[in-house]
Design a protein that fits this description.
Elements (H helix, E strand, L loop, with lengths): L1 H39 L7 E6 L11 H16 L3 E6 L11 E5 L6 H10 L4 E2 L12 E3 L2 E3 L6 E9 L8 E6 L2 H22 L6 E8 L1 H4 L5 E5 L1 H4 L11 H11 L1
Parallel strand pairs: 1-2, 1-3, 3-8
Antiparallel strand pairs: 4-5, 5-6, 7-8, 7-9, 9-10
């Protein structure tokens, strides 16, 4: 009998130790994964993460419901990695880029800060303005490539990460041709940042992707996929035609005459 009791006590103790080790290992694994995910955003647990919101393109004091849904998704994402989301409208944030990690949503027409980010840090890519009479309106253009806009059929978005003035805190720009493509880009970010994006663009490196959303009224915003990685061209100023010196021009004209 005493031997049975001893065996029972040993068994209980062994099970308790095993359970404690499994729990501790699981906790360490979760913390490592959280730290790895947070590193993509240049964050540490408890750090603030500023989410810069746009406005409705046609109504100054309103937001499109797709952008509201996207905001909720971003707040959930930031909370999951242990950071602290701080939501600010673009015209209320008056501080330089890079002070803290920033998630900036919307195109230049609905978010002036996003427009300045594009001109300042991604001079090699352009989101053309809204102009219904222009067949190329809202096209995303970079290095000779153009990604057009066909409402509800094929829409695109820019998803980029850059580090202003070598700051450890990146700006992640989510700049779609529509509120729907904004949300689609947020969905892509949430589902792919941990693995596929980090494989091609390690933490600390800038990137710029053009995403495509096809038939969203049928397949929803999660049907978004990578159209092209334009990192090589988005951060470089567009090439300008070489202008010959004035004396060369005159000489050529004289020769032709």
């Amino acid at each position: 009998m005493p031997g049975s009791i001893e065996n029972l006590v040993v068994g209980i103790a062994t099970s308790a130790v095993t359970a404690a080790v499994v729990w501790a290992w699981g906790r360490v694994a979760r913390l490592r994964r959280r730290a790895r995910r947070a590193a993509f955003f240049g964050l540490k647990p408890g750090d603030p993460c500023v989410i810069v919101m746009n406005r409705h393109a046609e109504t100054a004091n309103a937001m499109h419901h797709n952008d509201v849904d996207g905001l909720v998704d971003l707040i959930r994402l930031v909370d999951e990695i242990g950071a602290r989301p701080v939501v600010v409208r673009f015209d209320r944030l008056l501080e330089p880029a890079g002070e803290t990690t920033e998630l900036c949503i919307g195109g230049p027409a609905s978010n002036e800060r996003a427009g300045v980010h594009l001109k300042t840090y991604l001079p090699g890519i352009e989101l053309r303005p809204y102009a219904p009479d222009d067949p190329e309106h809202l096209a995303i253009v970079t290095a000779g490539d153009s990604f057009g806009y066909a409402k509800s059929e094929l829409e695109h978005a820019i998803l980029a990460r850059f580090y202003p003035d070598a700051s450890p805190h990146p700006v992640i720009l989510i700049c779609g041709q529509s509120s729907r493509s904004n949300r689609a880009a947020i969905s892509y970010l949430a589902r792919h940042y941990e693995r596929s994006i980090r494989l091609t663009h390690p933490d600390g490196e800038p990137f710029c992707l053009v995403l495509a959303l096809r038939s969203p009224l049928v397949y929803g915003t999660k049907s978004v996929h990578l159209a092209r990685d334009v990192t090589d061209t988005a951060f470089a100023p567009p090439s300008r035609p070489t202008i010959a010196p004035a004396d060369e021009k005159v000489g050529s004209a004289d020769t032709v005459a």
